Amino acid sequence: MSQSASGTRRPTIREVARLAGVSHQTVSRFLHDDPRISEQSQARIRTAIEQLDYRPNLVARAMRGHKTGRLAFILPTGTTVSSLEILAGATTAAHDAGFILDVVTLGGPVAQRAGRVDDLAESGLFEGIASLMPLPESRRPQDRTPIVISPEYDDQMRSIGELADAAPVAELIEHLADLGHRRFVHLAGDYAHTSARRRRDMYLATIERLGLHSHGVIDCDWRAERAEKAMLDLPAHAATAVITGNDVVAAGALRGAFARGWRVPEDVSITGWDNNKLGAVLPPTITTVIMDHERVGRRAITRLLAALNGEPDPVDNEPIGTVVWRESTGPAPS
Questions:
Q1: Residue-wise DSSP of 169-210
Q2: Is 72 helix (H, G, I), strand (E, B) or coil?
Q3: Does some domain include residue 224?
Q4: What are the pLDDT digits (tens) for 109-127?
Q5: Are 112 and 128 found together in one domain?
Q6: For the HTH lacI-type domain, which residue ranges apply (predicted)?
Q7: Distance (Å, whole) CA 311 – CA 12
Q8: Which of 20, 241, 245, 301 is such that its CA lies 20 to 30 A from the CA of 82?
């Protein structure tokens, strides 16, 4: 008698067959994607599986057809809000394709990771492996267990790759310039993060491209108190628009502006990044950039599924960053 993890009896393949009015061999062929089963029988089997909440025994499935119904999703050690959102998107994409997604975290020396991933690939537990961190080149052939790398995090859970895309900085500056702003300043994040360096570089390039004036780049290390001090030290009339590294820095900039008696956005506009929940309720609410982390997770699994099916790597050039304009930005003061 088969038992579930909770101790309750699990339905069997024979019960599915009886409810569907077919043989248990036909149900087995259905589970192995046999194209010879009629559409009517397939429909009845699907209905029976749903009604009984039937789940195939993964171990038996692996032994019979070298299929486990499981995918491995590799992340660096540590946890961030973005990684949880990425995991949600990846899990949904895997589930929709009929797979269970197992998260595997890798730490330790880089040189050891190839061997650890090879061990995962050779274990027979997974049909495919997707990694969101860079990996050394594998020493094993890829014909048995595909390994698809979509590098979005470095070893310390810092964003790289698409997650560090700074293109929305240009959109922020361009729109503020359309609103009459000509004098800008950038309150930057921690340059140990690729995302902070890219936002700084995009800021400088856009200012130069549009012929605007920059008071400069002030390093704030993702810290609100540094942003507050930067605003307090800012010469009068140095800037009417402040582009910050993230919403925490933007909140510090707001506090510094208020301490000087400046109105936001009437006297100075301030932008953030990352869509911190507090930024949506602070008075004024903070203009920010939302990164679609769930989409990043879905893309990673979609690439892996394509590899499993022998299909070309899918192309998706849509940006994942979206600017959300809120109360902290407005026309330049007259």
A1: HHHHHHHHHHTT--EEEEEE--TTSHHHHHHHHHHHHHHHHH
A2: strand
A3: yes
A4: 666 677 788 788 877 789 9
A5: yes
A6: 11-65
A7: 34
A8: 241
